[in-house]
Amino acid sequence: MTTEQQEQASAEQGAAAEAAPFGGDYAVIGKTVIALLQEFSAIVGLEARQTVHSVPKLIAAWLLSLPVLVFAWLGFSTTLGWLAYSLSQQVFAAMATFTVVQVICFAVLQWYLRRTAYWMSFPHTRENIHSFVEGVNRATQGPHQTTAAPPTAGEARAESTAQ
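Predicted structure:
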């Protein structure tokens, strides 16, 4: 090849690289995607392990909830009901106290079960997927393709009253 042919070939390669998306730097894009997938799989693996370790705790909480309610009913509720009766000499006060203690105990157990179920739902993985999708959406929108956000309800009302 002559020098002139080499210059022409390099100019064609440069033009092809400029015409290619992302400037033709596919190696960098590939490495970035691989790193992203590795981080994502690490998060999924950690949350899957956390979920598996949470299953026995969840089962134990479900199994213990009935005996806890029964023991609370037999012990603490009865004692507080008796105390309310002895102070007020009213059966209704004893029954209301008895019921309130049961409801409070059940509410605490429900809170614990919901908290455990939340951590079993892969919250960080869902957040990561959401962030990734938003990033892809932003990356695919060119600077000339910006879209205006729809007006809020308050702005729409203000515009309609101004007219």
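Summary: The radius of gyration is 32 Å.
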